Amino acid sequence: MTPYSDIRDSRVAPSVFGSVHLGHIVIETERFADWRRFGTDAIGMHHDDLDTGLMRFRLDGQECRFLLRRGPAEDVVATGWHLDDHSTFEQIEARVRAHGVPCVEGTAEEARIRGVERLLRFPGPKGITQEIYTTPVISPRPLKMLASGWVTGDSGMGHVAITSAKPALMRGYFNTVFDARLTDYIDETISGVKLKIRFLRVNERHHSIAIAAVRGLPIDPVRTRVQHLNIQAATLDDVARSYERVHELGFDMALSVGQHTNDKELSYYARTPSGFEWEVGWNPVVIDESTWKPSTHQGISVWGHTPVGRTIVNKLDQFRLGARSLARPERTVPALSGTGIPDD
After folding, report:
1. Through-space distance between the first and last CA atoms of the chain, rounded to whole angstroms
2. How far is CA 329 from CA 2, 295, 325, in A?
3. 229 near 254, Cβ under 8 Å?
4. What is the pLDDT of residue 154?
5. Bridge partners (DSSP) listed for residue 195
6. Using CA atoms, how far apart are residues 123 and 110, in angstroms rounded to an integer?
7. pLDDT at 320
8. b/e per residue 39-78 (b: at least 16 CB within 10 A)
9. What angle separates helix 86-98 from helix 167-178, to the nearest 10 degrees?
10. Would you call 125 exposed, middle or buried from its count of C-beta atoms within 10 A (0-12, 13-18, 19+)?
11. What pLDDT does 11 receive?
């Protein structure tokens, strides 16, 4: 007879991969007027004011894709993940609680302002709260935006890119919570600094999370918790027109139009009023799980993506930030990260 312990250990919990989709982002800022112009007039999203301390942007029928609340962080403070059903919700909640990590159920008001039915939050890497939810509310109000549309659906709404001094722990976290899979790597050298970027997917989108780290040095050269956010435009014309509007309205451009080596997305990067970057892209590859194998690419771009307006002062500031990060330990969630996942 097989010992009970062997039966127990042989059981494998069902994967939630494919049932998880990046659904909303919560940003804390005091720069509401600038963000309204940036999101509505430059990028081209639909805008709704809720009250003096809350503002939302929409990309599609879902009531909320970006929630902005007043506060000093000037940063992303939470990422929201849309789950296909209550079963997946309960499975992820059970995973998190089983590791001894506290979960907080969102109030009815917190769910309402995010336009979701059921909300749960728990700690995430770098102090970014992770929120899971089911059944987004579909707004009856028609979209009013300059863009013709944005690609969301089963792929989710884009991706989040994070810099980290502890990339193996961050990868371990998203594997534990969402069964994230490695898509590929990019090796890049920027201003003499060697970076390794890991791309993780939770569904057919090439990546919903990108993790960039300085090779061989435990430093983080970015002030904000996220390096950039990405949304996917419906057409190439939408990318071109929003790029033009960003320039015309006087917002800073971080990287010019270019095409990435790994997901083939054509995009540009603007700098948001809070300081992190915002990528508008078009036509990335869609992953075929039956054939995809991780690989390593040299350089982030096939062409383009050249820095705009960078000076020696900018480079020195980045090195100062990296040095300061040595005295500022990166926040992790050890119970969910485990020992981390080293590079393949």
Report:
1. 37
2. 46, 31, 7
3. no
4. 94
5. 188, 214
6. 17
7. 47
8. bbbbbbbbbeeeeeeebbbbbbebbbbbbbbeeeebbbbb
9. 130
10. buried
11. 56
Specify the amino acid at residue 8: R
| d(C-alpha 45, C-alpha 58), whole Å | 6
Is residue 344 helix, strand or coil?
Answer: coil
- Give me the residues of the chain with pLDDT under 70, please: 1-12, 191, 310-327
What phi and psi values does residue 125 have, to the nearest 5 degrees?
-60, 145
pLDDT of residue 310: 59
Distance of CA 8 to the CA centre of its chain: 35
Q: What does the pLDDT read at residue 193?
A: 78
Of 213, 204, 215, 269, whose CA–CA distance to 242 is shortest? 269
> In terms of pTM, does the model score above 0.70?
yes
pLDDT of residue 264: 98
pLDDT value at residue 220: 84
The length of the chain, given as a count of residues:
344
Between CA 144 and CA 44 the distance in angstroms is 9
Alpha carbon distances (Å) from 328 to 84, 217, 318, 322:
37, 14, 15, 10
The DSSP string of 203-220 is: SSBS-SEEEEEETT----
Distance, CA of 66 to CA of 25 (rounded, Å): 5
Lateral strand order in the sheet of 116-122: 46-51, 54-58, 66-70, 20-29, 75-83, 129-136, 116-122, 104-105
At 309 the pLDDT is: 78
